[in-house]
């Protein structure tokens, strides 16, 4: 007979990610809504400021990045909400798996469901802003790093506001100041790429910030979840 | 020394000690600020480039300095409250936030007023310090909004502490990123970095103002924390005796 | 007066100073008011609790 094996450390991480992906598969709206939002917001700017091609090319990176940030905020609200409502959040808090690891798992599944599709869609949107090829590659790279950071930062905010009445607007207010450096470096790096300037500084920064967030954010999120749920 | 610190974290002791310290802090603050204002406004020589408008430095720099010091106090006391579970530390954080927000607001407004004659506009995105101050103001708002949204005091204390710490980690990053961002644009800055050596008559009033406002912040903070303590400890016997002494008479 | 006009920048300088001291005084006054209000609120509560207990 096989001896039952104790769960290994990353089993919890994989289980949470797998579960979230399955849930997202069953509710495609969760994935598609932020994507549509991203596309629509990106379209709002040209409509509002006018079709002048030069101006669009100039503002494209900024617009895309703001849209990406807003789309991330939109999907962060429900990060823990569903789990909170059906009791699985409590299960996570009680489980013997380290909570920071589970928090990291939630952030990762959030990115897989909202950030990654956005990165994949972005070149399409970038075309409408006359973005040159080099800039588009840089844009995808910066967005990839940036959306990971957004997911990680956002889960701190989501953990703090889960179960609060009007947590949505509050969540945005909490996350936006923290996310500004990422926005600044991301958007400007893409602008630099469009102007054929050096982009390494920006990329290094985004990478470093992403690493910092990966190491610290899960602990903050875990602390936030514990506090919100006692 | 440890008994002193231990006693300090006891609310009734703090309440009395703070009451005794406030007059000293406020008094010395008043002296320093009076000297700094008069010397800065009337006795410091006018600046070579900016004329008399540079005198705003004597209120702008203290405000900006304090806006950041207040956040440091906020983050440190919130961290102490979170890690060592000292209730008084949370009260200090709660008291520091509105004060810090006010000073940040002052830094922004005086900075904007100072910039107007130089830039021709009321706001200049190219100035990194001003933009950083704006983001700092948002951090304060977020902190206070989170506190207000949570009814249970203990929970609000701890949740906002996590936020304060996250903000503290991000603060240097925010400064750095805004500096980088504005350096790409080469915008005009408010304070000349490493210009001609600042004259002594210009420097002393500035130092006095910075120190004076810091002491003032200390006094204001202690006063607010005293009020917070009363509210938080309202069920305690010492509060009862203090507020309604006739009962035990 | 040269003092008041501040080399032409008078409006800016004096507004900045006025605002600063205004806010400071506001903080002082607001803090005191709040403390007094809390104090008297608590006092009223204790008193009515004692009255009810009698």
Order of helices and strands of chain A: HHHHHHHHH
**What would you call the shape of chain A?**
elongated
Low-confidence stretches of chain A: none
Structural class of chain C: mainly alpha
Could you walk me through the main structural features you see in this protein, from its secondary elements to its overall organization?
The complex is a heterotrimer of chains A (230), B (249) and C (54). Chain A has 230 residues and is mainly alpha-helical. Chain A has one domain. Chain A has 9 helices and no strands. Chain A has helices at residues 9-26, 28-49, 53-76, 81-86, 88-94, 99-128, 133-161, 167-194, 200-228. The longest helix of chain A has 30 residues, at 99-128. Chain A is elongated, with a radius of gyration of 19 Å. The mean pLDDT of chain A is 91. Chain B has one domain. The mean pLDDT of chain C is 88. Chain C is an all-alpha fold and 54 residues long. Chain C has one domain. The longest helix of chain C has 44 residues, at 10-53. Classes of the chains: A mainly alpha (230), B mainly alpha (249), C mainly alpha (54). Chain B binds chain C through residues 37, 41-42, 46, 51-53, 55-56, 59-60, 63, 99, 102, 105-106, 109-110, 113-114, 116-117, 216, 220, 223-224, 226-227, 230-231, 234, 239-240, 243-244, 247, and chain C through 3, 6-10, 12-13, 15-17, 19-20, 23-24, 26-28, 31-32, 34-35, 38-39, 42-43, 46-47, 50.
Map the helices and strands.
The complex is a heterotrimer of chains A (230), B (249) and C (54).
Chain A: H1 9-26, H2 28-49, H3 53-76, H4 81-86, H5 88-94, H6 99-128, H7 133-161, H8 167-194, H9 200-228
Chain B: H1 2-8, H2 11-43, H3 57-84, H4 87-119, H5 128-149, H6 153-185, H7 200-232, H8 237-243
Helix pairs in contact in B: 2-7, 3-4, 3-6, 3-7, 4-5, 4-6, 4-7, 5-6
Chain C: H1 2-5, H2 10-53
């Amino acid at each position: 007979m096989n001896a039952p094996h104790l769960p290994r450390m990353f089993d919890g991480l994989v289980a949470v990610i797998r579960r979230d992906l399955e849930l997202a598969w069953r509710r495609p709206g969760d994935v598609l809504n932020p994507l549509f939002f991203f596309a629509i917001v990106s379209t709002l700017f040209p409509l509002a400021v006018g079709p002048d091609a030069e101006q669009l090319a100039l503002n494209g990176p900024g617009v895309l990045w703001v849209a990406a940030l807003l789309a991330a905020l939109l999907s962060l609200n429900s990060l823990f909400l569903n789990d909170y409502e059906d009791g699985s959040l409590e299960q996570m808090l009680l489980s013997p798996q380290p909570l920071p690891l589970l928090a990291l798992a939630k952030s990762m599944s959030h990115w897989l469901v909202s950030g990654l599709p956005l990165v994949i869609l972005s070149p399409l949107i970038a075309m409408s802003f006359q973005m040159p090829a080099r800039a588009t590659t840089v844009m995808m790279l910066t967005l990839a790093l940036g959306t990971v950071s957004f997911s990680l930062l956002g889960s701190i905010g989501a953990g703090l506001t889960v179960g609060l009445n009007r947590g949505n607007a509050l969540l945005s207010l909490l996350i936006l100041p923290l996310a500004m450096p990422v926005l600044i470096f991301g958007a400007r790096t893409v602008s630099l790429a469009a102007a054929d300037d050096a982009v390494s500084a920006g990329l290094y920064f985004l990478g470093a910030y992403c690493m910092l967030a990966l190491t610290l954010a899960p602990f903050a999120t875990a602390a936030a979840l514990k506090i919100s749920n006692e | 020394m440890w008994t002193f610190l231990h006693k300090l974290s006891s609310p009734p002791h703090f309440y009395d000690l703070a009451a005794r310290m406030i007059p000293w802090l406020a008094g010395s603050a008043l002296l320093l600020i009076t000297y700094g204002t008069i010397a800065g406004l009337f006795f410091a020589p006018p600046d070579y480039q900016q004329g008399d408008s540079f005198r705003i430095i004597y209120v702008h720099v203290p405000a900006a300095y304090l806006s950041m010091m207040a956040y440091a106090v906020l983050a440190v006391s919130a961290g102490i409250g979170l890690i060592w579970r000292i209730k008084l530390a949370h009260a200090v954080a709660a008291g520091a936030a509105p004060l810090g927000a006010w000073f940040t607001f002052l830094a922004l407004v005086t900075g904007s007023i100072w910039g107007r004659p130089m830039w021709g506009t009321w706001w200049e995105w190219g100035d990194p310090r001003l933009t950083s101050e704006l983001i700092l103001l948002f951090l304060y708002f977020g902190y206070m909004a989170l506190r207000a949204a949570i009814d249970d005091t203990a929970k609000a204390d701890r949740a906002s502490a996590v936020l304060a710490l996250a903000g503290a980690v991000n603060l240097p990053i925010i400064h750095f990123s805004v500096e980088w961002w504005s350096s790409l644009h080469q915008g005009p800055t408010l304070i000349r970095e490493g210009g001609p050596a600042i004259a002594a008559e210009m420097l002393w009033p500035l130092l006095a103002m910075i120190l004076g406002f810091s002491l003032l912040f200390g006094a204001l903070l202690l006063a607010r924390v005293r009020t917070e303590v009363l509210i938080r400890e309202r069920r305690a016997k010492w509060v009862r005796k203090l507020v309604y002494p006739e009962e035990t008479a | 007066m040269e003092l008041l006009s501040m080399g032409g920048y008078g409006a800016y300088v004096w507004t900045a100073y006025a605002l600063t001291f205004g806010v400071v005084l506001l903080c002082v006054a607001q803090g005191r008011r709040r403390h007094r209000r809390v104090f008297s609120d608590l006092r009223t509560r204790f008193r009515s609790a004692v009255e009810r207990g009698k």
